[in-house]
Amino acid sequence: MTTLTSTPIAKQQIAGLVLAGGRSRRFGSIDKGLQLWRGLPLTEHVVKRLAPQVSKVTISCNNNLQRYQQLSKKYRHPYHTQYQPLILRDSILPADSGPLSGIFALLEWYDKKTNHGDFNTPSHIMVCSCDSPVIPQGLVNDLAKLLDQTNSSAAYPVVGDDHARLLLLLEVESATYAMQQTLDASCQQPANLSVKHWLKRLNTSTLSLSGQDIGVNINYPSDFAKLEQYSS
Questions:
Q1: What phi-psi label fits residue 135: left (phi over 0), alpha (psi between -120 and 50 degrees) or beta?
Q2: For residue 102, which of 57, 147, 144 has the smallest C-alpha distance?
Q3: Is 167 contained in some domain?
């Protein structure tokens, strides 16, 4: 992957969100984000790669809160304010609603804080799943460039026919509006709460990458073997 040398979005305006709140049913219903690879939890591999690309990182989790709190604190930036949570539980959607729960929880948290005089809501959020431990180190930069070039409000990578929607850069204002549309619609009838369906409410662009660029998504314990091709 060719990493772009500059981004039109200042790093200080991009927050990171790592999704580690799922049930991991395909992984035996254990906390997948805390499973070890090369001595570190999968979530820590993601945070370690994401933290240098953004201004602050929040981990979305619903179990093992103390462990995730410690992990998030380990990679906290010096300018990580008290108004950016280290961890955040699902709060706005019904239980077991999937990855959108974590995204909505942070968007709602920001929305409630906008009236705080000393709180500066980030303009963008980079969402990463905890089971993609070798995300490209230039991914945020490249997605930000794509947003600028296409005037989009969301962007994520595509590898062949595989849409990596949980490596997603979102413009906060547009995403918050799309969240409210979904919540309003769900009051009238059962809502489709998939990320794929929700992104139809946003102007979304995709970035074509190779499989080597994007890394491995760990869905099953056997997938760990696929990670051995990566040096770090």
A1: beta
A2: 57
A3: yes
Amino acid found at 165: R
pLDDT at 43 over 90: yes
- Residue 209 belongs to domain with CATH number: 3.90.550.10
Q: Indicate the number of domains in the chain.
A: 1
Query: Does the pLDDT value for residue 33 go beyond 50?
Result: yes
Beta strands in the chain (DSSP E): 14-19, 36-37, 40-41, 56-60, 87-88, 124-129, 154-159, 162-163, 167-171, 204-208
171 or 96, higher pLDDT: 171
The residue type found at 171 is E
Judge whether residue 166 has pLDDT over 90. yes
How much is the pLDDT for 155? Answer: 97
Task: Examine residue 22 and state whether it is found in any structural domain, yes or no.
Answer: yes
Nearest Cα residue to 214 out of 156, 134, 160: 134
Residue 2 falls within a domain, yes or no?
Answer: no
CA separation for the pair 124, 102 (Å, rounded): 15
Locate tokens 């180190």: which residue? 137
**177 lies in which domain range?**
11-229
